[in-house]
Design brief:
alpha+beta; single chain; Beta Polymerase, domain 2; 21 strands; 4 domains
Length: 624
């Protein structure tokens, strides 16, 4: 008996979540597991058998989940389970019958636990209970922690970007009145050994901040006397975030505004001041230096030099626990700064000062989902009097083409499909854009559907955003009332299928899997269809999923799984691009599943299954 328990213990210690069970929970589990053999083809669970009564862990063999009443390859409900995987957790938690048949694909041995002991184990083990409640997310947490631990050792930095700002504050803020003489403020900064001081009102609300940068630019260079009141040289209305905001929001805010410090408030009252070094402690490269270097660049080549530092900074952010979607937003914000600076440098070289126009981003930049390597998808929306469209376009095109070339010099590859502002087809007046979108929606040709996957994600980067928001509103209204076009878009999003075989196994070709096309695209396209159907204003994929839940067009449990799967695939792509850049090679969208560990291979398969499930839901909804 002891040898059998030791063998079982060794097996469980090799598979999540059992390898992380608390010692007393593992000792509770081991003697209660019963081994049962199932011959090839035998049903292990059946919807007709009543509420599920046993928890199964596959010890050896393979099990297929199947639903003969549906097209499993469309619905995403066919899958294969292998040793270490378990079922049917959802049915046990819900005290209901299983939805699918679990059938042994070959002679199979399962370790089984009664429903009563399953419940007792959940009570005894927070690890097991968390796994049962949030299966995919729990595996992803384990995977993410393991990756960070491997990269950082025991630095303790893991996860700090997803802890509240209040937890990062380690000392009382240094404050004064806005009427404090400059000499007194500087003396306080020296005595307290800080690089900033915050001017507050009588209730402790921040009114301004004075930093060493202000000392140089507003005091020393302007030869201000030291009896000058602080209010005359401080930066007024400092950016303040609540103490409940996450560390990444602080980093994001710094990137948006090109600043080194943020005020942390509770109920409007200042409770601390954090610098970038307080949030990004593991890397010498500073976000502030990178953003300021872009904003102050006087040549395109200088911008390009600054952007070459971006992968190193993003590496530090990844190592400190940021989620994939947060990292993509940060990359996009920095790229937005670079785009705006390029446009500023080029404007003076072209006779366009009297033209009102907005620089547009399409695709991943519009969704704020740009990765480390990306190409350009951009355009121009200009304003002019009726009849002057061609004349205005001719004046703007040289500027737009120069901007496309400059952005290419900065590392944003020219779009192979020529979706760029320098293309006359992408440099249009607001009325022309509206007519074009209306034609695509009304006609819905294959070419129109392909273009809609790029152009229907749009965002203003530089210039007046008002006309762009008006265009987006018109677009959402038209698609919401055109079910034929939405059905065509839903069918179009089936183009890229997750690489799963008949039994749910991952299929990988000789050159690996394109994780962008076959992993991310099903989520991006599916969320877009839902947004257009319900007139959801969001552009980011994760935000669209959340808004679909609020609009009651998507179940919260499904959205939770889609979020987890999408974040994993986004992070997997980022890691692949990091490796490609480090090795000096092109690409980064392709991965080889066989090079992943057991746990990560399991997560990848589940992420692909969730993508297939989302496609299946849309197929059912639109009767495809």
């Amino acid at each position: 008996m002891s040898d059998a328990l030791d063998t079982t213990r060794e097996f469980l210690n090799a598979h999540a979540p059992f390898d992380h069970l608390e010692p007393d929970a593992l000792e509770f589990l081991l003697p209660r597991l019963e081994s049962r053999f199932y011959a090839s083809g035998e049903r292990i669970t059946d919807p007709d058998a009543g509420p599920a009564r046993r928890f199964h862990i596959i010890r050896q063999g393979r099990v297929r989940g199947e639903n003969p009443s549906e097209d499993e390859q469309v619905s995403g409900k066919a899958w294969e389970l292998v040793p270490g995987e378990s079922f049917p957790i959802g049915a046990l938690l819900g005290r209901r019958p299983v939805h699918t048949v679990h059938r042994a694909l070959e002679d199979t041995l399962c370790l089984e636990l009664s429903l009563e002991d399953f419940d007792r184990l959940r009570t005894r083990s927070p690890v097991f209970n968390d796994f049962c409640s949030r299966r995919l997310a729990s595996l992803l947490d384990r995977l993410h922690q393991g990756l960070i631990a491997g990269q950082l050792g025991h630095s303790g930095a893991s996860g700090q970007l997803n802890t509240p700002l209040g937890a990062r504050v380690t000392r009382e803020p240094v404050t004064c009145s806005p009427d404090t003489p400059l000499r007194a403020a500087l003396t306080t900064m020296r005595d307290q050994k800080v690089g900033s001081i915050v001017a507050v009102d009588g209730e402790g609300r921040p009114l301004g901040i004075f930093t060493m940068t202000d000392l140089l630019s507003r005091v020393t260079l302007e030869e201000r006397p030291l009896d000058t009141p602080l209010r005359q040289v401080m930066t007024p209305d400092p950016i303040a975030l609540p103490d409940s905001a996450l560390g990444f929001e602080g980093i994001e805010t710094m990137a948006d505004h090109g600043m080194k410090h943020i005020c942390v408030v509770a109920g409007g009252r200042l409770v601390g001041v954090l610098g970038e070094r307080d949030l990004l402690t593991s890397h010498p490269l500073t976000l502030d230096r990178l953003v300021r270097g872009i904003l102050r660049a006087d040549t395109v080549s200088t911008i390009a030099d600054q952007l070459r530092e971006l992968p190193r900074l993003i590496g530090a952010v990844i190592h400190q626990g940021a989620e994939a979607d947060q990292i993509l937003r940060l990359i996009t914000r920095i790229n937005d700064h670079a785009t705006r600076r390029v446009l500023t440098l080029l404007r003076s070289r072209h006779d366009i000062a009297d033209i009102g126009f907005t620089w547009l981003a399409f695709g991943s930049q519009a969704r704020e989902e740009q990765a480390l390597t990306t190409d350009q998808d951009n355009g121009i929306l200009f304003r002019c009097k009726p009849g002057q469209e061609d004349e205005t376009r001719e004046r703007l095109l040289p500027f737009a083409q120069a901007a496309n070339q400059a952005l290419a010099e900065c590392g944003f590859e020219l779009c192979p499909g020529n979706v760029m502002a320098g293309n006359p087809e992408c440099c249009l007046s607001g009325t022309e854009w509206e007519r074009r979108f209306s034609r695509w929606i009304d006609q819905g040709t294959p070419e129109h559907l392909l273009k809609s996957t790029i152009f229907f994600d749009l965002r203003a980067i530089d210039g007046d955003p008002g006309p762009v928001e008006e265009l987006r509103s018109q677009l959402l209204h038209k698609t919401a009332f055109n079910s034929r076009f939405r059905r065509q878009m839903a069918a179009n999003q089936m183009r890229f299928r997750p690489p799963l075989g008949l039994f749910g196994e991952i299929r990988s070709g000789s050159d690996g899997i394109n994780v962008k096309l076959h992993g991310l695209t099903p989520f991006v396209d599916g969320a877009r269809v839902m947004a257009l159907a319900a007139e959801l204003p969001a552009t980011r994929t994760h935000e669209r999923l959340d808004q679909a839940v609020s609009a009651e067009t998507l179940r919260e449990d499904d959205a939770h799984d889609y979020h987890a799967a999408l974040r994993y695939l986004q992070m997997l792509r980022l890691r692949s691009q990091q490796q490609a850049l480090a090795e000096g090679r092109d690409g980064g969208n392709r991965i080889r599943p066989e090079e992943l560990g057991t746990l990560e291979g399991r997560v990848l398969k589940e992420a692909f299954r969730q993508a297939r499930k989302l496609q299946g839901q849309l197929a059912v909804q639109y009767q495809l």
